[in-house]
């Protein structure tokens, strides 16, 4: 049985994962710039290899985060649909959930393009 409390939790989860995704994307940009800078300056091969490993780990987190976001979005949609069936459709929680869904779907569309 879906409740408004569950809806708030699922909405917050989606928002948190979106923040994580943006954070990882920024981290990849920073680490890529740092790696390129180290290559230009002719850094020690060991240090360069370690930096490349850090960059690879950061890149691995993005697909994982997207997968979690897809699952979280599906949960949110399911909870919203369940609440729609019980004729509970009004309130700030529903507006927040719908706007979060729209934001996440736009994020996926821009990633695919």
From TrEMBL:
GO CC terms, sorted: cytosol; microtubule
Subcellular compartments: Cytoplasm, Cytoskeleton
GO biological process, one term: post-chaperonin tubulin folding pathway
Primary subcellular site in the record, as a coarse category: cytoplasm
One of the record's GO molecular function terms: beta-tubulin binding
Domain of life: Eukaryota
Coiled-coil stretches noted in the UniProt entry, renumbered to this chain: 14-41
Record note on quaternary structure: Supercomplex made of cofactors A to E. Cofactors A and D function by capturing and stabilizing tubulin in a quasi-native conformation. Cofactor E binds to the cofactor D-tubulin complex; interaction with cofactor C then causes the release of tubulin polypeptides that are committed to the native state.
Similarity section: Belongs to the TBCA family.
Record's protein name: Tubulin-specific chaperone A
Protein's gene: LOC110415095
């Amino acid at each position: 049985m879906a409740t408004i409390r569950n809806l708030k939790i699922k909405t917050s989860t989606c928002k948190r994962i979106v923040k994580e995704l943006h954070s990882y994307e920024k981290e990849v940009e920073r680490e890529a710039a740092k790696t390129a800078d180290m290559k230009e300056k002719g850094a020690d091969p060991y240090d360069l290899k370690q930096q490349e490993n850090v960059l690879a780990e950061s890149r691995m987190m993005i697909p994982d985060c997207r997968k979690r976001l897809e699952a979280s979005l599906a949960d949110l949609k399911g909870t919203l649909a369940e609440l729609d069936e019980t004729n509970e459709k009004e309130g700030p929680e529903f507006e927040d959930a719908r706007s979060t869904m729209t934001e996440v779907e736009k994020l996926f569309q821009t990633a695919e393009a």
